[in-house]
Specification:
The chain is mostly helical and about 250 residues long. The protein has helices at about 1-15, 20-30, 35-70, 75, 80-105, 125-130, 135-170, 175-205, 210-235, 235-245.
């Protein structure tokens, strides 16, 4: 769990670093200009770490599934080599996706004057501003979103269906509480990440106010990664015990 959590923390730091520094500089300098090269670079790394967050949450759901549903085989199944392989595959898939999307965006031609209705270079916003044909870009974007977002979310939901089914079979109330507390932090993170992210992309079809969409995007691009350390810290008994010793 701590191995996956350390990777998730690294991904969250990089995820927020792709948008927040530029946003703060825009506020400080009172300018909203970004060069074409910086825009494509920002979009590439945003997609990379967004996808990595997505896959790591899925891997952590599988880790909780094995820990609760197959506790006696946990150390055998989730051995260090297999855990490293899961993280490596997550990195490779997300890197290939972000690289493909960025290279296809480079093939688009744009008009001279551009204004992105967002606080960062979001893929969908960039594609909409292109003057050339964007059919293949839209096709690849929706296909990859379906594969790299819907499939992991389905895996998370399936894992928690099995987890809940196993927990309900536990006779003692203490055992049920311990099992639920084991996956409570991860479930909170999944709810925040997917809840805010899906709301932004689903609501963008019927909400024309770009300012509302941009503000809502702050929830999953800034607020959610910031809250993740607090969620795990406040629900972890080892960290709470260390804080009690520190303050006493």
């Amino acid at each position: 769990m701590y191995f996956f959590l350390s990777n998730l923390s690294f991904a969250d730091i990089c995820f927020t670093s792709t948008t927040v520094p530029k946003m703060l500089m825009n506020i400080q300098m009172q300018t909203q200009v970004i060069t074409y090269e910086h825009c494509i670079t920002q979009m590439h790394f945003f997609l990379l770490f967004l996808g990595l967050d997505n896959f790591l949450l899925t891997v952590m759901a599988y880790d909780r599934f094995v820990a609760i549903c197959h506790p006696l085989h946990y150390t055998v199944i989730m051995n260090p080599r297999f855990c490293g392989l899961l993280v490596l595959v997550s990195w490779i898939l997300t890197f290939l996706d972000s690289l493909l999307q960025s290279l296809m965006a480079l093939q688009l031609s744009f008009c001279r004057e551009l204004e992105i209705s967002h606080f960062f270079c979001e893929l969908n916003q960039v594609i909409q501003l292109a003057c050339s044909d964007t059919f293949f870009n839209d096709l690849v974007m929706y296909l990859t979103t379906g594969l790299l977002a819907v499939v992991p979310l389905t895996g998370i939901l399936f894992s928690y269906m099995k987890i809940v089914s196993t927990i309900l079979k536990i006779a003692s109330a203490g055992g049920k509480y311990k099992a639920f507390s084991t996956c409570g932090s991860h479930l909170s993170m999944v709810s925040l990440f997917y809840g805010t992210g899906l709301w932004v992309y689903l609501s963008s079809d019927f909400i024309e106010n770009s300012r509302v969409t941009a503000i809502a995007s702050v929830m999953y691009t800034v607020a959610t990664p910031m809250l993740n350390p607090f969620i795990y810290s406040l629900r972890n008994k080892d960290i709470k015990q260390a804080l009690r010793i520190l303050f006493s």
